[in-house]
Structures are given as C-alpha cells and as structure tokens.
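Friendly challenge for the regulars: who can give me the structure tokens for this chain first? No prize, just bragging rights.
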Amino acid sequence: MTQEKKLGYALQQLQDDLLMWGIDNHLGDKSPLGTYIRLSEKGATNLVALVNTLKSEIRRLSLTAGELYVEGSK
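First reply, four minutes later:
Bragging rights claimed.
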C-alpha cells in the first residue's frame, strides 16, 4: 500500500470517527501528492475534542464495569 493510500485511509477513519462522536471532522489540508497533511488549528482542536470524548467514555465504561464487578461479587 502506498503512503498516499495509507494516509487517505487513516484520514478517512479519523474523519468518520469525529463525525460519529458529533465533532466537526475538518482536520486540515492534504499535500498535492497526498503524502502528508498540514494540521490546522481547527483540526487540532477537533482531535482534542475526540480524545476528550473517548477519555470520558473510557472513564464511564470503567465505572460501569466496576459497578458490575461489585454487584457480581455479592
């Protein structure tokens, strides 16, 4: 797989995930050859929002799993 295809796949995955979580999926601009992306300020902010959303979900799921463990051990 070429670098261009790898970058395209990774960017599409990130954009899909951002949309799934209700976050604007703009990341920046790809180079004319498609081998790198220039991350914009808005793109960086969008990625931070995604990471924060994922961290919150992980925390929520961890608490839920802990509650299930406690209930199951009674």
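The CA atoms of residues 66 and 72 lie 10 Å apart. The chain has one domain: 3-72. Your move, everyone else.
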